[in-house]
Amino acid sequence: MSLSEYQALDLSADGPVAADLSARIAEEAACPTVPLSSSHGAAADSPALLTPAMEIWYRTRVASARVSAIAEIRRGFEQETLGGNPGFLYEAERDRIEQVKQGHLRAERDGFFQSKRIRDREAEIDRLRSEYAYKRSQHGRDAGAWNPVFKHGGVAAIMLLEFPLNLSSFLRIDFLTPALATASVLLIAILFAFSSHLLGRILRQWGERFGDNVTRRLRADSYRHLAVAAVLFLIGAAAIVFSRSYLVAEALNRQAALGEEGGSTVAIYGIAFIGNLAVYAVAVAWVLFTEDPVPDFAEERARLDLLKAQSQAAYRKGLERQQQQRIEQARRDREQLDRREADQAKGLRNYAACRARFDVVARQDARVLGLLESYRNRLVAEARKRGVQTRFTHDDLASGDIGTRRDLEADDYLGRRLGLGHA
Q1: How far apart are CA 419 and CA 50, in angstroms?
Q2: CA dihedral 155, 159, 161, 164 (to 10 degrees)
Q3: 24 contacts 57 by C-beta, under 8 angstroms
Q4: 405 backbone dihedrals φ, ψ, rounded to 5°
Q5: I want to staple 69 with a disulfide (CB 3.0 to 4.6 A). Which of 3, 144, 156, 423 is the partner?
Q6: Which residues make beta-bridge pairs with 331?
Q7: Angle at 127 between CA 122 and CA 133, to 5 degrees
Q8: In this structure, are residues 118 and 312 in contact, taking their beta carbons and an 8 Å threshold?
Q9: Are residues 408 and 416 in contact, defined by beta-carbon separation less than 8 angstroms?
Q10: Are the C-beta atoms of residues 306 and 221 closer than 8 Å to each other?
């Protein structure tokens, strides 16, 4: 094919070529996720940011004639020389520089991901991102901030109140040294801390753990946590009651010696233990206040943020500098190309004629882009009519980020410029 054949291609809105493109809307509008071609699209046979249907239509209906037309214009430029160098089509050379840059960026990135540690971390990030996105869509919100220092530190601070409540009674136990008595009080505080944490979390997440649509595994884990919380509490309570028995025995002996009437033993133990129950209840209330009502929601968000930060740090250390050097080299090459183009415009003998022929291609390109943009608008409108929340995805190797995938909402995609490459 040649320039004349590309120029003769019927790209009218009511022509058969346009009708073939329009016929693809119905199938693609049903897809909730639509992958896009490269956002750079420097190749003449692969434009930027096209949906699969748009790209197939372009390659079957337009690409062959257009590639041949551009090749004919490039040959026209190359027939003349300037300073011993053949002429060139500026747009083709500009897109060739972009292709070289993208090739280097991809090769370096592929080499970077040869590390198993990096691949495993990225796989874990993808898994957590998917799970977190599902929970966020299910509950209609982001997870609350997860601050383990604030949460667990609060429980630990509350449990310090166990020392003034219990230490004196444990010091009464004749077979415990002061050090062992102090260690015993500390152990009880730890048991109560873990128990209150488990119980508070279960109570806060009760509906998510024991509701109608809860998995058997989560329900079983919840029962197991409740059992562990009860056992830890009972162990701590038994130790406290045992230590209190020494104080209660002293009180009863004193009452008997003085001939005083005292309360029942059960009442005395109950009054002695009420302070410990109050501390335990405050710790449970603290966990209720700091825990997210969705199991593992806040933890997954914190874990995901941490892994993403580690991933980005590894990218900056091992890849970012190389990538920036490639991008900077491409920028310098474009600046040099601009200077060569300015010289060529002044000195190349057939420059004006070749540019005029290229203008013919540019006008036909505008018609192609018009059909593609019209399809894009109608695709989004049809998806919305069907109630489909379409997300458009593409890779951006020059993003300056370890993750190259970019998601676009429909309005964002409509705002992006489509382009036809020339390389």
Answers
A1: 9
A2: -170
A3: yes
A4: -70, 135
A5: 3
A6: none
A7: 120
A8: no
A9: yes
A10: no
Q: Is the dihedral of CA 271, 277, 279, 282 positive or negative?
A: negative
Which amino acid type is present at position 256? Answer: A
The answer to whether 61 and 16 have CB atoms below 8 angstroms apart is no
- Side chain identity at residue 311, one-letter code: S
Structure tokens at 417: 């410029």
Which amino acid, 90?
Y
pLDDT string in tens for the chain (423-residue length): 588 999 999 999 999 999 999 999 999 999 999 999 887 767 888 898 999 999 999 999 999 999 999 999 999 999 988 888 899 999 999 999 999 998 888 888 888 888 888 888 888 888 888 888 888 888 788 887 778 888 889 999 999 988 888 888 888 887 888 899 899 999 999 999 999 999 999 999 898 888 878 888 888 999 999 999 999 999 998 888 888 777 666 655 565 555 555 555 565 666 667 888 899 999 999 999 988 888 888 888 888 888 888 888 888 888 888 888 999 999 999 999 999 999 999 988 999 999 999 999 999 999 999 999 999 999 999 999 999 999 999 888 766 667 777 888 999 999 998 989 998
What is the CB-side half-sphere exposure of residue 339 using CA atoms within 13 A? 5
Length of the chain: 423
Q: How far apart are CA 294 and CA 267, in angstroms?
A: 40
- Bridge partner residues of 419 (DSSP): 48
Distance (Å, rounded) from C-alpha 72 to C-alpha 255? 115
User: DSSP states of 386-404 as a string?
Assistant: TT---EEEEE-TTSSSS--
Q: Provide the CB-side half-sphere exposure for 242 (13 A, CA).
A: 15
Structure tokens at 99: 């292709």
Q: Are 237 and 269 in contact (CB under 8 A)?
A: no
User: Is the distance from CB of 397 to CB of 109 less than 8 angstroms?
Assistant: yes
C-beta separation of 422 from 44 below 8 A = yes
Beta bridge partners of 409: 391
Q: What angle do CA 198, 200, 206 make, to 5 degrees?
A: 95
The crossing angle, in degrees rounded to 10, of helices 162-171 and 265-290 is 150
Q: Can you tell me which residue has the tokens 């920028």? A: 331
By the 8 A CB rule, do 273 and 265 touch?
no
**Is 1 buried (19+), middle (13-18) or exposed (0-12) by CB count in 10 A?**
middle
